[in-house]
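subagent[fold] <- orchestrator: predict structure for attached chain, return tokens only, no commentary.
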Amino acid sequence: MSLTAIVASILISQGGQKPKTKPTTKPAQTAPTLGTVQLPGDNGKVGVTYQLGAKGRELHFTLDSATVRMNFSAPEDSLAAGENQRILILNFTVQNPQKEEMGLSATTFGFTAVSPDDENFKFSGYILGLPKKGKISQSLKPAQKVKCVVAFPIYATGPVTKVMVNKGDATPILRYDLTGKLDKMESAFSKDGIDLDQTTKFPALAKGETVDIGEFGVTYNGWEFTNEKIKGYAPSKGFKYLVLKTSFKNLVAKDAFLSFAYFDYSVTDGSGQKLPWNRDILFEGSDTSIYQKLVFGEDDIKGRVYFQVPETMTSFSASLTHVSSKRKVKLQTN
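subagent[fold] -> orchestrator:
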């Protein structure tokens, strides 16, 4: 039998197919992370997990949500917005994808918000653990996952279009555009839940209404004219006292302090002349000055301030200003 016939016979016996060769087995590769994650890029997305850090020292980072507020309440790290500021709050998850323990502390991640006019606002506080909001400085075991939050002051108005997150000097970094992704705040100083203004936008603070201002909640309890003695003194001849009543409550977990130095009251008569204030806040039921801590969760402290005004005064305007933030609220006087 010829060689051609032999080959044909073999092919027929194998169903017309050539003999299969066993594929070469590639060596198994160890994945550097647990699960599938994205690499950092120009556009970070809320809810997506990214891998941040130098090779072999990576951590997984997921931005869960973001919001802005007048203040942030935590037992040891409470914050209140200052002048032309609001507080940016970032809730996120960190997981250790390594086979060894990895550290997590205040300096593990960097957070920077960039304003529309290119001013940088950097986070310089503590990473707090959720839900108790205690300071985190710990080792993460392999695959361990923790929920965290950071809060820091940024510019008061305008969209939050650039928030950068980095781990050390490793690149690339995460960049988030939070336009339309911020949980809205409720504040007397915000008309849209995003911007935080320096003055309230409604024309007057009505009696019994409360506003958030700095770390305080302030309730306006109205006003009255009186000729009764205050601190042992009656009004001078031809004058009477104008008394403005306000209550104060601490809105943050850290103790706040209340005295005349923290608020400025202003009264202007019908001609626009500003009347002098004696810079004293008294308890509503006594002539004792308020000079004490306000503890979170305790009842409001009711106070009053007084001005000596002409006996003929029938109309006036009044306002209350938080000294450190310079935020002002107009008090209803009619």
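orchestrator: received. Logging for downstream: Helices lie at 3-13. Confidence is low (pLDDT under 50) at residues 1-35.
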